[in-house]
Amino acid sequence: MSTAKKSIKKVTTHRLQEMKDQGEKISMLTAYDYSMAKIIDEAGIDIILVGDSASNVMAGHETTLPITLDQMIYHAQSVVRAVERAFVVVDLPFGSYQGDSKKALRSAIQIMKESGAHGVKLEGGSEVIDSVKRILSAGIPVMGHLGLTPQSIYKFGTYTVRAKEEMEASKLLKDAKLLDEVGCFGIVLEKIPSKLTKQVINLVKCPIIGIGAGEHADGQVLVIHDLLGITKEFNPRFLRRYLSLFEEIKTAVEKYIDDVKTGDFPNEFEQY
Ligand code: KIV
Predict the structure, then answer these.
(1) Contact 50, 88 (CB under 8 A)
(2) pLDDT tops 90 at residue 72
(3) What's the distance, CA 147 to chain centroid?
(4) Which residues are bridge partners to 209 per DSSP?
(5) Position 4 pLDDT exceeds 70
């Protein structure tokens, strides 16, 4: 019997574009640690996003603003260690790229060098285009993020659907075109009307990944903790939950506590 390791075809930006062009939908999920990344990579996910949502789901902050570059790199290193197939993208955290394209490039290079990830994602359009271009000029793949951009939550004031009004929708279309033209390998559209996503799709060449952006997107992304039902208070319309892990884990832990307290665990087979 052969002991040769099965060769795994890695997902690349080229492959992602090919998937879009051939009409194959792209799957993307967040991960922030080794164990979860290993599971979702083995399951066959195309893109793993080391999202700054780690600030919420891993660290318990109310917003994504507090997470630092070093903390993002720590999460990214853990994910990269686990991944054999997926394309790993890391969010540039708040304050690491806005208003200073040289700083943006330094942040992106630090992520790539210290984590071994394959690309970075940042939020915004024309306001950050100098940063996007400078990072791209260093050969680092960049993914855009438009619509609801959580790093701007204090500007928006709410997490409701974005770009319902004509002016915001038209800016989003211009920003998507700009990001596509300068060479982003993909754009995340978050919480916008489905018909606006369709307009973006008709305007750009690169893959569009939606979260709450409807059926027309070339792919979908969710936060893994939401999909698994580990976060239970977050219930937007766009979220499909596949498990209720908060309750399932809690029940298992309650059972364990009970087994320890009653002396049922460990039994005679669970000791040396
Ligand atoms: O940080 C994150 O998880 C994200 C996704 C919601 C797209 O940016």
Answers:
(1) yes
(2) yes
(3) 15
(4) 188, 219
(5) no
Cα 222 to middle of ligand 1, angstroms? 7
pLDDT at 98: 97
Q: CA separation (Å) from 90 to 62, 143, 159, 190, 222?
A: 20, 9, 22, 17, 15
- Does the structure show a pLDDT above 90 at 1? no
Residue 145, sorted as left (phi over 0), alpha (psi -120 to 50) or beta, turns out to be beta
Question: Which residues form ligand 1's pocket by a CB distance below 6 Å?
Answer: 30, 49, 51-53, 91, 145, 188, 190, 211, 221, 223
Q: Which of 162, 190, 231 to mutate to test the pocket of ligand 1 (most atoms within 8 A of CB)?
A: 190
HSE-CB of 199 using CA atoms within 13 angstroms: 16
pLDDT exceeds 70 at position 3? no
CA dihedral sign, ordered 29, 228, 70, 125: positive
Q: Which two tokens stand for residue 31?
A: 């991960």
CB 205 within 8 A of CB 177: no
For residue 121, the ligand 1 atom closest to its alpha carbon is 8
Which candidate in 190, 233, 248, 268 is catalytic? Answer: 190
Q: How far is the CA of 150 from the centre of ligand 1 (A)?
A: 8
Residue 165 annotated in active site: no
Residues near 26 by beta carbon (within 8 Å), at least 6 away in sequence: 16, 19, 20, 46, 47, 186, 207, 209, 218, 219, 220
The structure tokens listed for 195 are 């018909």
